[in-house]
Sequence to fold (373 residues):
Amino acid sequence: MSDEQVMPVSQPVRAKSLLRAKLEKSSQLLQSRMPNIKVFSGTSHPDLAQRIVDRLGIDLGKVVTKKFSNLETCVEIGESVRGEDVYIVQSGSGEVNDNLMELLIMINACKIASASRVTAVIPCFPYARQDKKDKPATNTDVERNVEKWKSIEWKFRSRAPISAKLVANMLSVAGADHIITMDLHASQIQGFFDIPVDNLYAEPAVLKWIKENIVEWRNSIIVSPDAGGAKRVTSIADRLNVEFALIHKERKKANEVASMVLVGDVKDRVAILVDDMADTCGTICHAAEKLTEAGATKVYAILTHGIFSGPAITRINNACFEAVVVTNTIPQDGHMKDCSKIQCIDVSMMFAEAVRRTHNGESVSYLFSNVPY
Fold:
């Protein structure tokens, strides 16, 4: 067979092999350009951000935050984020308004610097308690209970803002594509967003702590300090196979409890108070007194977000707690120095695993019932 007869056959084969090689090279080039991961920290909780990146085995992104003389916040991202998968860790604690503004500016800075996706990791969501308008009193109620309603002026909330929704809008407008948070004060806050929200739960870490640190946990009773936390305590009680109780409270005004009624039998049992957050600690300290009066042998308090503002530390020191256990969604080093009863559960591994799974496109639901080791 002559060379002239072979050429028409070999040319298409060679062309196909060259095309295949070009496609493979192009595919490798695209893979190398796929978004990588960058984690930045705001000023609210740098320790948690460092723990997260240590767990992920990467370095914390370079960012400089400062204030001008007129107290405006300035943020400078110190490295390229073009095409990157960016995570910004900022908790709603301390100087809440400054930290929230810093988070919004950081999100916007990364977004306009061509980041592929920006995820706000907000361990403690700011303004979460302002999630609804309370039911206003009717004229009939006022006429029947004039003195009572005079002392409960805060219940007239028909013109109250829903600030949690406002914060959700601000985060979306700033450019956030995704939110990762923990133990929202009210689960309906997830519905305030038009972007995905992963609400992690401290419950798996709480269960682990109880089993490892409370010897008599099988003879315990899980107590909610208010009716709103009933769902939370029943879930924990079911998984420990113990009973639960709750305390009904009436308030005179915000941050001040008037009376408490215990529903459940705590006599000769270890009482474990569980709540999502404690601010001035008036509620949990009153609840601890009530449980001791009702015959509880020991009282523990386990909280996701330990804000501990105002007289909180003094109240805990004077209360009858064996321990007040909080997670590190909010910095606790200062509180632990001032109060020996405060202990801390590290939840950085849960946030790190949520970041890793989100980045790799994996399911996060495993974290709802398990602690990653």
Remarks:
- The chain has a mean pLDDT of 85.
- The radius of gyration is 27 Å.
